[in-house]
Amino acid sequence: MGLEKEFEKAKQWIDKSFDILTASGDLSVFEINIRYVGGFLSAYALTKEKLFLSKAIQIADLLLPAFDTSTGIPLALINVQTGKASNYGWASGGCSILSEFGSLELEFAFLSKITGNETYLLKCRKLREFINKMEKPDGLYPNYLNPHTGRWCQKHVSVGALGDSFYEYLLKVWLFDEKRDKSLWEMYKNAVLALEKNLLFKSKPSNLWYFAEMKATRIEHKMDHLACFTAGMFALQSLHETDENQRAHYLELAEKIGETCHESYNRTITKLGPESFRFASDIEAKAVRVHESYFILRPEAVEGWFYLWRVTGKQQYRDWCWEVVEALERYCRATAGYTGIRNVNSLPVDQDDVQQSFFLAETLKYLFLTFSDSTKIPLDKWVFNTEAHPFPIGTENERVAAA
């Protein structure tokens, strides 16, 4: 991006002022991993600056006590002062969350690759092998798992909040490992088939494809903005399908989900998408409740369109991204950055005065790459973690490791 001066200033701050050990209270293992460990590893891969690698190692080591359970399923929180791990008080039955413990392996695999220390990878491989052997209702992965008993806590299944990046990482770790681990591809394919069979629906009259949620035996016809990432996931999957029919099927699924997410934006007054949207006899891709109507600068829709642009070359995906750029400028621009808005269907907008960190890491990055040459971070050489930090695939890893 040509921001060399800004990069040097940030690097100096990290070197002199950033110290994870000053953090107090409980920290999210998942968030620290995808943002800090992932961010530093990506910075190292892109620059070969050893400072970033040392920070990634330090932080990852502090997360390891969370894995000390009878099943190897990590707890959600870690106190870096005491080394004590725990789970959220609000989580069902004190259980761990699928999207959180299922979104560690990409970073830990990369760290093991660079350092030669297998500890990180083996921790994640153990937990993956454990859940792979578990009985899964209708082939589905519920969102909550007890890390002590190794049993599902309740049958709540979602490809949005609480589930999302688990599926993403099955595919991306397989790609990062140069497709060598066939069990990953098999797990991913079986998981996706179960989602399609049980949670994929088509609305009337617009024929919008969407993923609903399952709560016990009840289907809730609601799709989170978070679930819009699946458009990108399926587009990426289509690139690696060897069967032509499967390739066409998953590209169609990607485009249909991408279209649905665009409709969730296009049907609002601000042309910004709500946090979640519903489907019923008289509703299609619209937020119904007040708490579903806010927009916090989330990236998943533009992430999906970025992948679809790269895979298909269709101009409409760039056009949809540009619509978001214009809406961001019109409604979210603030004095010192960008802010979320509390209701996408209300004017004048009520800004929440918060710029989420993923806006910089993901939303703006995917927009930038959508309008950049496709040789910048090509999808056959790099894989993005769930916070949009790019990791090099294959032989590129060896080059980084030798740096």
From TrEMBL:
<keyword id="KW-0735">Signal-anchor</keyword>
<comment type="pathway">
    <text>Protein modification; protein glycosylation.</text>
</comment>
<feature type="active site" description="Proton donor">
    <location>
        <position position="31"/>
    </location>
</feature>
<keyword id="KW-0479">Metal-binding</keyword>
<dbReference type="GO" id="GO:0005783">
    <property type="term" value="C:endoplasmic reticulum"/>
</dbReference>
<dbReference type="GO" id="GO:0005509">
    <property type="term" value="F:calcium ion binding"/>
</dbReference>
<feature type="active site">
    <location>
        <position position="164"/>
    </location>
</feature>
<dbReference type="GO" id="GO:0005975">
    <property type="term" value="P:carbohydrate metabolic process"/>
</dbReference>
<dbReference type="InterPro" id="IPR036026">
    <property type="entry name" value="Seven-hairpin_glycosidases"/>
</dbReference>
<feature type="disulfide bond">
    <location>
        <begin position="228"/>
        <end position="261"/>
    </location>
</feature>
<dbReference type="Pfam" id="PF01532">
    <property type="entry name" value="Glyco_hydro_47"/>
</dbReference>
<keyword id="KW-0378">Hydrolase</keyword>
<dbReference type="InterPro" id="IPR050749">
    <property type="entry name" value="Glycosyl_Hydrolase_47"/>
</dbReference>
<dbReference type="InterPro" id="IPR001382">
    <property type="entry name" value="Glyco_hydro_47"/>
</dbReference>
<keyword id="KW-0326">Glycosidase</keyword>
<feature type="active site">
    <location>
        <position position="300"/>
    </location>
</feature>
<keyword id="KW-1133">Transmembrane helix</keyword>
<dbReference type="GO" id="GO:0004571">
    <property type="term" value="F:mannosyl-oligosaccharide 1,2-alpha-mannosidase activity"/>
</dbReference>
<feature type="active site" description="Proton donor">
    <location>
        <position position="275"/>
    </location>
</feature>
<feature type="binding site">
    <location>
        <position position="386"/>
    </location>
    <ligand>
        <name>Ca(2+)</name>
    </ligand>
</feature>
<keyword id="KW-0325">Glycoprotein</keyword>
<protein>
    <recommendedName>
        <fullName>alpha-1,2-Mannosidase</fullName>
        <ecNumber>3.2.1.-</ecNumber>
    </recommendedName>
</protein>
<dbReference type="GO" id="GO:0006491">
    <property type="term" value="P:N-glycan processing"/>
</dbReference>
<keyword id="KW-0333">Golgi apparatus</keyword>
<keyword id="KW-0472">Membrane</keyword>
<keyword id="KW-0812">Transmembrane</keyword>
<dbReference type="GO" id="GO:0000139">
    <property type="term" value="C:Golgi membrane"/>
</dbReference>
<keyword id="KW-1015">Disulfide bond</keyword>
<comment type="similarity">
    <text>Belongs to the glycosyl hydrolase 47 family.</text>
</comment>
<keyword id="KW-0106">Calcium</keyword>
<dbReference type="InterPro" id="IPR012341">
    <property type="entry name" value="6hp_glycosidase-like_sf"/>
</dbReference>
